[in-house]
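Quick log. Single chain, no ligands specified.
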Amino acid sequence: MFRTVVVNFGERLSVKDNWLIISTAEGEKQIPIEDIYSVVVDNQRTYMSIPCLNALTSSGAHLLLCDGKHNPVSVVLPLNTHYRPLNVIKKQLSLTQDFKDNIWDRIVKHKVLNQAKVLELCGCNSEYAARLRELAEEVVDGDSGNREGIAAKMYFRCLFGSNFIRMNDDATNAALNYGYAVIRSSISKALCGYGFNCVLGIHHINESNPFNLADDLMEPFRPIIDLWVADNFEELLNELTRQQRNELAAIVNNVVEFGGKKMRIRNAVEKYIQSFSTAVERNNAKYILFPKIIRQDLYFEE
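-> predicted structure:
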């Protein structure tokens, strides 16, 4: 699975002989379902048949649905892909606070290290990147000292300017939210594939959030989106263009370093959750591995 299909207009989606059929007034486009990693429906007029939806999720693809303002609001995930889900959930429920704190320390540390790399790639003052690396090494006891929050304040102001406020209603935040939703859906799919219940978080414990665990584990991937937004900052006006949304939807095909190798983000997500599963199975946080942000290689081949 490697293709992200973005549906921008009022297409009709159906399935025939394991091919996704995309029908428009101009004709039909066919894509092998086994090639599809995800489908982003970014309009309010698309019709999709139930057999099509079943075929996509049965093959392992997930769907991201957007509202009338092009904000991702729903995700459809494949279920029942793990052979012993109850065993995994039992292990989730038995995790100690020490284990959770150790995992969260490592997640925050690698998130902040990736933020430092983003500042470096964007040509920001080297002192800020160096300070972020210092903060990453100071994360202890479930980040009881809130090094994540201190780093975020410094990081976003350096990256987007002193007037930037996270969650304001502007194009920069819209791009961040869109990209984060794409990463979150990929993390959620991988977690379900390994039998995890996403509501049972390590650090996030919001009772109304069905994706607490995905929100925990996506943290080191957030700077990937931040880097794209910084690179496209001058082109972000009042709202995201269709082209910008399409690029963010397909960002899982960008490249990171994972385990000493370059690979697509979608593959790194799978290996990342696999390593988390090993850490849970062996009750040892040291088994979880993390992505490293690198400069994009336009000539990367898998």
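The mean pLDDT is 94.
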